[in-house]
Each structure stands twice: as structure tokens, then as C-alpha cells.
Amino acid sequence: MTEPSRREQILATAAELFARRGFHGVSVSDLGSACGISGPALYKHFPSKDAVLAAMLVSISEELLAVGTARSAGAATPTEALAALVDWHVGFAVEHRALIVVQDRDWSSLPDEARERVRSLQRAYVDVWVTRLRETDPGRTLDAARAAAHATFGLLNSTPHSGLLDDAAMRDLLSTMALRALGVAGAG
Amino acid sequence: MTEPSRREQILATAAELFARRGFHGVSVSDLGSACGISGPALYKHFPSKDAVLAAMLVSISEELLAVGTARSAGAATPTEALAALVDWHVGFAVEHRALIVVQDRDWSSLPDEARERVRSLQRAYVDVWVTRLRETDPGRTLDAARAAAHATFGLLNSTPHSGLLDDAAMRDLLSTMALRALGVAGAG
DNA sequence: GGGCCAGGTTAGTGGTCGTTCACCTGAGTG
DNA sequence: CACTCAGGTGAACGACCACTAACCTGGCCC
To answer: Which of A41, A52, B103, B150 has its CA 20 to 30 A from that of B2?
Structure first.
């Protein structure tokens, strides 16, 4: 099995370049030569430049939702579920800084179909958080819970903006801040 | 006096368009016709497309720093200073959602000189926060305080991602979450 | 009323981009 | 050994973009 390494090399390289210069700031030729091949060879692996972005963003949205759902379901209490969600999300963000940047910067450059796909996956992911948030605090409005989830993502996704701390320290800091922001007890 | 309305119309329109489609996703002709003029007429007001972006981002960076500094200086205690900073920042973010989006998405498209200018203004603004943060909690490392400030900006700047709440409710929610995240006592 | 000029216009230019085309190659297969 | 075909190449194409050039116009000033 061990699927084609070229395709994945392209996706990984594209993530770094798109994160640094933006989707429109990276040409097909740039991307190709960063992979050791050049220009139009990309079209042997993807039908278009858009498709590279789409594959990238759809797959991370799917992973966030799938693992997030599992972590939440595996927790004994709503509070523990939120802690697990924060832990998962911050780990993902620290480990895939480039993808985080691309996801919320170049999301709007997606072709229509992929954009809708990503949006619906993201909505579902937000809902996992929202459900747990409203279990811990039933006074929260649906919209308020959604806004709180978005705000927490903003906090956790700030990782790429400050490469000051090492990964472990960054994870600790962000987890603590996120749990406090959400009003989850026991955040040191 | 009442300076040229065209120039400011262009800046305001550009902020909206850049926020929606990205700097590279908006052509000079798009921007012109959104202002009721067309295409190259922009060059009567700005020397280049880059200059529009630069004027926009430099001016908001200056305002954030200037008012932030004043608010911090006007506070009696470090804790009150942080509350004032949060209040100012969240108010700005809610009121200028488009600018917030452009600032951290298209920052890298700035011409070199303006980019350095904006970066140094932003560093200075972060330092206002960092100083107050370390006064309230001297145990914080310089880098940890910077990362905490960036994380708080990420939280506060999440406004544009969820237009669910009205402005007042959004300000309340974000202020509360930010102050809790920062560990400032007396937040709801 | 003639001259100036801020602020428009349209047409054009050079460059870049995404994409396609025709072609090449070398490893695997019957 | 002939055939195939995945994966590469460079050249070319059409679209679009930022920007320039040449020109027009209407208010203002002496």
C-alpha cells in the first residue's frame, strides 16, 4: 500500500508555501520546483491548483471532526470532554501550524463544492464543542456557545503567530488559557 | 478641511473587499468599480495597489498602539490596565471586523518598508500588554507573556468568524473570556 | 475668458499565471 | 523483445493583472 509519496509531498510542501505566502501568492511553478519537479508535472497528481488546496483542507477538516467526536464521546463528563477537546485541538494546532494558517486564510479560495464541504465539516466540529459547552452551562444560548467555541479556536489557533515557546510549553499555556476562558473549573 | 472623501472611501471599500476575497483576490478594477470610479482612477489617489494596503494597515496599527498606550497609562493598577486594554481591543475588533481580517491575512503582502513599520508597531503594542501582564504576575516569562498576549488577540480577533451575536453581546462575551484566559480576577 | 489642474476616461503594454499539448523516458509485463 | 504507461519535460496559449499613456472635462482664479 503505502500510497504515492509524491502526492503527499506536494500536499505537505503546499501547506508550508500557502501558509507563508498565501494561496494566490504561490504559483504552480513555485510549488512544483519546491517539490523537485517543475511546473506542469503537478497535473499528473492533481487536476488543478484549486484541487491541491481542496484536498488539504477537506482532509484536515475531516480529521478534526472525526477525532474530536471520538475524544468527546470517550469522556466520562462534559467537563472532561471539554478538556479532551482542548487537548486534541491544541495538539493538532501546534503540530500542524501551517495547516491552521491556510485553513482560515485561504478557505475562501476553495472551489464551491469543496468550500461547502469544509464549511459543513467545520460546523459539525463546532457543534461537538457547543453540545459539551451547553451541558456544563445550560444557561448558555446556542449562539453564545457557538461564539465561545469560535473564540476558543481563535485562541488555540494563535500558535503560528508566536513561535516563542517550545511545543510543550505552548501546549500548556494555550490549554490553560482556553479552559479558563471557557470557565471550566480546575484549570490551574 | 474635511479631507478628501474619495481617498477614505477607497480605503473603506478596500478593507471590505480585501477581507472578503483577500488582497490578491481583488483587482484594481474591482476596487475601482466598487467605488463608482473605474480601474486606473485609483492611481490619482494612491501610487500603487500595495500603497492602499499599506496605508490601511499602518494607520490601524498606529491607532491600536496609540490608544492602547493611553488606556494602559490611564489605569490605576495593572489589573485595571489589562481590563482597559481588553475593553479597547474588543471594541476596536467588533467595530472594524474587516480591518482585523485583513491585518492578519494580508500582512505578508505589504511592501518591505511598510511591513517593517507595521511589525514594529505591533511589537510595541504587544509590549504594552506584556508589561501589564508581568506586573500582575511576575512569575511570567517574557516569552510566555508575549505568547499569552498573542493568544488573547487570537481570541478577541475571532469576532469576524462568527456574526451570531449582536455587537454588545459579542463584546461582553469576548471581554469575559479574555480576562478569564489571562487570569485576571473579577471576571464574571 | 483663458489657463490650470484635480480627477476622471479608454486603450494599450509587459509580465505572470493556470493550464494544455506534444513529446520523452525507463521500469514492469506477456 | 515489443508494449504500456506512470510520471516527467519544455513550449505555447489565453486570460488577467498592475500599471502607464494620452486624452478629456469642469470648476476656480486672475
So the answer is: B103
